[in-house]
Amino acid sequence: MKVIKLSSPATKEFWEIPVLFEDEHLLALDKPTGLLSSPEGDNTGLPNLMKLLHAAIADKKPWTVERNLTYLSNAHRLDVDTSGVILLAKNKPAFLALADLFGTEKPVRQYIALTHGSPPENSFSINAKIGPHLAKPGQMRVDPHNGKQAQTKVEVMERFQRQTLLRCLPLTDRTHQIRVHLCNVGLRIVGDELYGGKPLWLSNLKKDYRLKPGREERALLARVTIHAEQLALQHPVTGETITITAEWPKDLKVAVKYLRLYAAA
């Protein structure tokens, strides 16, 4: 698999980011968790994917030269902790067409989420308007009166004793939509402390868990456990249907392995 290499001199961080799809108009990457898509709010000083990409183009890094890249722009974004498919345009006409496409909310986006709690149904839809939480800056909430229309389809993939693995398909694109909708029906996403989701610890799953002296337990999952697994859309230039898939990140794979081993339903 092809990768592009990015680094942040300010934070001494380094990333090898898999290329999921590429042609002369588009570039799809597998965004790692913990990396912002673009500058936002109070986090403008932190590394973000778009700034790193633009710096690589300006510095004529080898992977940009071999592609003759002078332009990259994103028509959608992922939250900082969300891993998975992010699609970029390589030229202005493709970006404008892609932005129009995402504006119609036609691309089919499929996310994986691990939650605390279990829904009664195996398949259901959440229709609830979403707006800013006036008392908690940076947080969203269900707001039936002043919120924007939002809908998410949810399917149970696997149930465990106290957690559930879900496939979520947002039919609209609102800030924190999956997180707010699931929270509203009593499902807290693992690691999403902003909305009441606690980290996942092996010591809470394995009955005979013992930690070696002098060691400190690290959570299996301490970040918002959402992964953008798949994006399907009509190519904004060629018109063909393309489906782009991102493999689950290592921390999610490991957590699900331990859940199956020690917390099967």
Give a short synopsis of this structure:
Helix content is 18%, strand content 32%. With 265 residues, it is of the alpha+beta class.
Describe the 3D structure.
This protein has two domains: 1-104, Pseudouridine synthase (2-Layer Sandwich); 106-265, Pseudouridine synthase, CATH 3.30.2350.10. It is globular, with a radius of gyration of 19 Å. The protein has 265 residues and is α+β, with helices and mostly antiparallel strands. The protein has helices spanning 49-58, 62-65, 92-103, 177-184, 250-262; strands at residues 3-8, 13-22, 26-31, 73-74, 83-89, 108-116, 123-127, 130-132, 140-142, 151-159, 163-170, 188-189, 226-234, 241-245. It has five helices and 14 strands.
Based on the model shown, name its key terms.
Pseudouridine synthase; 18% helix; 265 residues; alpha+beta; 2 domains; twelve-stranded mixed sheet
Task: Summarize the SSE layout with pairings.
Blueprint: E1 3-8, E2 13-22, E3 26-31, H1 49-58, H2 62-65, E4 73-74, E5 83-89, H3 92-103, E6 108-116, E7 123-127, E8 130-132, E9 140-142, E10 151-159, E11 163-170, H4 177-184, E12 188-189, E13 226-234, E14 241-245, H5 250-262
Parallel strand pairs: 5-13
Antiparallel strand pairs: 1-2, 2-3, 3-5, 4-5, 6-11, 6-12, 6-13, 7-10, 8-9, 10-11, 13-14
